[in-house]
Design a protein that fits this description.
Layout (H helix, E strand, L loop, with lengths): L26 E13 L4 H11 L4 E9 L2 E8 L2 H10 L5 E11 L4 H11 L4 E10 L2 E8 L4 H8 L3
Antiparallel strand pairs: 1-3, 1-4, 2-3, 4-6, 5-6
């Protein structure tokens, strides 16, 4: 996990730019995500998500977007092996890849700080989705090319 902002371990050091005194640190971690290509038709996402729920799958993140004449669904499950088993059971063909999951206290400039670290390391971001979660929290998921995962993890301090 990576800490961005929040209280410093060194009491004499100033908090990271944009951090608030006494706030909980943000975390960035490498996660497995599973992508699937599905028909681009009404109700397909609801059918798949309901079937996964029926198998007891908890998702940390989910996104879907058009991909040619189909739709790509990206799932970040809490339990990868259980997700794979459930996906097979419901007839969903998935491929495993790596992404980065970011969670923390919402504040101005947080995403700018993250993408700047990657830019400084020469890592190109393939995609990034971020959202305010309410009650002062936010979450994001970002993807880089597989060949750049190690470099991105180092730049972000992700585990």
């Amino acid at each position: 996990m990576m800490y961005i902002g929040g209280s410093s371990d060194n009491a004499d050091a100033p908090p990271t730019r944009g951090a608030r005194e006494g706030t909980m640190a943000d975390t960035i971690r490498k996660v497995d995500y599973f992508k699937a290509q599905v028909p681009d038709k009404a109700g397909e996402g609801a059918r798949i998500l309901s079937a996964l729920l029926g198998e007891g799958i908890n998702l940390l993140a989910f996104t879907g977007f058009p991909r040619g004449r189909k739709t790509q669904l990206d799932f970040v499950p809490e339990d990868g092996p259980a997700f794979r088993k459930a996906a097979r059971k419901v007839g969903l063909v998935v491929a495993k890849n790596t992404a980065f999951l970011v969670q923390g206290e919402d504040r101005p400039g947080t995403i700018a700080e993250i993408v700047s670290k990657l830019a400084d390391a020469g890592v190109n971001i393939t995609a990034l989705d971020a959202v305010a979660a309410g009650e002062g929290r936010y979450g994001a998921i970002l993807w880089v090319k597989p060949a750049e995962v190690r470099k991105a993890a180092k730049a972000l301090g992700a585990k």
